[in-house]
Amino acid sequence: MEERFWELIRGQARECMWQIELQIRLLNSLIMFISAAQAQIQLGQPATVKVAANLIRQLSYNNKNMLQTGLIVGGWDKYEGGSIYSVPLGGTILQLPFAIGGSGSSYLYGFIDQAWKEGMNKEEAEALVVKCVSLAIARDGASGGVVRTVVINSEGVTRNFYSGDKLPLWHEELPLRNSLLEEASSEVEPMRA
Which residue has the higher pLDDT, 125 or 37? Predict the structure, then answer.
């Protein structure tokens, strides 16, 4: 989307590839629509996050029989500051203080209800996101193995990447190690006659 607005695609892992291709085609159309309608929508001002989220909602609703994915739209604009919207299956729109979704989200609701607090600074919020995604990764086989974050504020957009070996470990989770073949070959002593 526009640099100040980002969309997170979430959905059933088995359907992600064709959905991503469809989403890209639909989003390219949406980006052109936002660019063309921007002047009319806000009387010469850039579109707001709310406008972008409503366009995504409309796109999702109009294609509800083809899209099996929920969306999260977040961004920053000069009218509302930072805001985040969840667009679940079927095209409903919900403005929330935070949004989670995808296959690993079922593991996160209790955790984030307890850990999220109003007024977190950028570092606290990003640390919470890394914890949440790493928890989902530990519990859900379809949640990937790395964390990518995007911080959007009045200063611009900052992207960060956290590799799997830098993520926190959770209860009963084993630390990363070499493959079993490498481990076995390094511990075996040569036979002596």
Answer: 125
Q: How far apart are CA 131 and CA 155, in angstroms?
A: 24
What is the C-alpha separation between 18 and 171, in angstroms, rounded?
Answer: 35
Residue with more model confidence, 131 or 192? 131
Cβ neighbors of 149 (< 8 A, separation 6 or more) are: 126, 129, 130, 159, 160, 162
The whole-number pLDDT of residue 14 equals 44
Both tokens assigned to 150 = 């995007």
Q: For the whole model, what pTM was predicted?
A: 0.71
The answer to whether the beta carbons of residues 73 and 6 sit under 8 Å apart is yes
Distance CA 102, CA 98 (A): 14
| Contact (CB, 8 A) for 85 and 72 | yes
CB 70 within 8 A of CB 86: yes
Distance, in Å, from the CA atom of 68 to the CA atom of 151, rounded to the nearest integer, reads 26
